[in-house]
Amino acid sequence: MNITFKLFATLTDYLPAEARRSNQLVLDVAPEASISQIIEPFGMPPKLVHLVLVNGKYIAPDARDSTTLTEGDVLAIWPPVAGG
To answer: What's the predicted TM-score (pTM) here?
Structure first.
């Protein structure tokens, strides 16, 4: 099944070069793949995987190993952001 995978801010560096400009790519993932399993091949340090949203809904860290997606979902990830 296909999902849209989006990385923001400094995490775009973990996308393939051809996807960095748009900050997203379409992934073909297994229906039983958890969010953690989808993220793992991109090699992002866990401390940088801060805000995880599926279709705009926040997924808490303790739910990322058990939450799966459905066809057409959008998985978006942001690193920790500091400001002031």
So the answer is: 0.94
